[in-house]
Each structure stands twice: as C-alpha cells, then as structure tokens.
C-alpha cells in the first residue's frame, strides 16, 4: 500500500469535469484507490463519492492505492492533479 499527498490547484477543486477525469483514470487500474480530505474518505473509482468530498481549490488530498499497479495509478493521478487536470491519459475517453 502506497500513499501520496497533493494540493489541488484547480479553481473548481475536484468537482464535475476534474472529478470525472480523476475517476476515469483510477478505473484504468486494478488496484483499489482511495482519496481522502481530512477525515472524509472515498473510493476513487466512484464519481459521486469523490464529488461529495467537497475538495476545493488549495485543499490537500491524500491518495492511497493498494494492489499490483499501485505505483502506476498514483503516478498517473499525481500527474493529472499537478497538471490542473489537463494531462489526460490517452486511454481515458472524454
């Protein structure tokens, strides 16, 4: 199990389009992925759960992955968040 902590810089936070891209990316991997903000935790592969975390601009989130491709999913989710949700994995269809 591995975790990373990131600051969301997107002006809308992790809502609507950014949340959709986040979830679609997480779903590409076998590992279980959880995202948390403070005490709230959500399955990163479920759009409604991610949106209900109410992640806003400049909020800190922790992403935890557990499974055979945990490093890859964390790498791709980190790139997505740090790119302000513009670095879309080519296999993610919008």
Structure write-up:
There is one protein chain. The protein has one domain: HPr-like (Histidine-containing Protein, Chain: A, 2-Layer Sandwich). The chain contains 3 helices and 4 strands; from the N terminus they run βαββαβα. A 4-stranded antiparallel β-sheet has the order 1-4-2-3, covered by helices on one side. Helix 1 (16-26) packs antiparallel against helix 3 (70-82). A hairpin with a 2-residue loop joins strand 2 (32-37) and strand 3. The chain is globular and about 35 Å long. It has 94 residues and is α+β, with helices and mostly antiparallel strands. The chain starts with a strand and ends in a 12-residue tail after the last helix. It is 31% helix and 24% strand.
Write down the secondary-structure element order: EHEEHEH
Spell out the CATH superfamily. HPr-like
Q: Kindly name the structural category.
A: alpha+beta
The DSSP helix count reads 3
How would you write the strand order of the largest sheet?
Answer: 1-4-2-3
Beta fraction? 15-25%
Tell me the count of domains: 1
What's the overall geometry? globular
Rg is 12 Å
Distance between the termini: 29 Å
Q: What do the pLDDT scores average to?
A: 92
What is the CATH domain class?
A: Alpha Beta
- CATH topology term: Histidine-containing Protein, Chain: A
Report the strand count. Answer: 4
Helix fraction?
A: 25-40%
CATH architecture: 2-Layer Sandwich
Low-confidence stretches: none
Q: Specify the biggest β-sheet.
A: 4 strands, antiparallel
